[in-house]
Amino acid sequence: MAEASSTAAGLETITLGAGCFWCVEAVYQRVVGVESVESGYMGGIVNNPSYGQICTGETGHAEVIQLKYKPSKVSPTDLLEIFFKMHDPTTKNRQGADVGTQYRSAIFYHSEEQKQAAEEVIAAVQPKFGSKIVTEVTAASDFFVADKGHQDYYSRNKSSNGYCRLVIHPKLSKVKHDKYKSPGVMSKVLGALSS
């Protein structure tokens, strides 16, 4: 298991997969206490895979985001409650129209505290779903950063990209949590654009 990342700034790291990393990144960029969000890949058998390799489904990697967060401001439990509100954890290797092992629901924990939080949150939210939660809970392994074009995707493309308007924007509007900063006015503007 990768060690919990602690720095002089008191940051910790957790890695999450919940479908296309563009969606997940956009949600967690709005969470109080999250200091950085980086899109990439984890959980596979190939070193330094390309996006093209990931899309074949043959490397075993999931599209993930790696968060650095301040545990004094947001807990692993908070982060995981948001995780289960922003995607469907009951569909194996799929989120909406995105299908393949790279789109699986996965929590890659970096500490025993995160592992315990994952198990507790899954037990707490399971009754809210009609089907069994299939989210993988696995120790973090090597993280491979996705190319620059995949970083900060929603912020750079929200007004000009159909995927942003039709897929990412509804996810941003759906999350309700006291640690989540709602997209607010931009939400109304983009909602009108997608109508």
Automatic annotation (TrEMBL):
Gene3D superfamilies hit by this protein: Peptide methionine sulphoxide reductase MsrA
Enzyme superclass (EC): oxidoreductase
Keyword Oxidoreductase assigned: yes
A GO molecular function held by the record: peptide-methionine (S)-S-oxide reductase activity
Known EC number: 1.8.4.11
Residue ranges of domain Peptide methionine sulphoxide reductase MsrA in the record: 13-164
Superkingdom classification of source: Eukaryota
Keywords: Oxidoreductase
Similarity comment text for this entry: Belongs to the MsrA Met sulfoxide reductase family.
Record-linked HAMAP family: MsrA
PANTHER family xref list: PEPTIDE METHIONINE SULFOXIDE REDUCTASE (PTHR43774), PEPTIDE METHIONINE SULFOXIDE REDUCTASE MSRA 2 (PTHR43774:SF1)
Protein name as it appears in the record: peptide-methionine (S)-S-oxide reductase
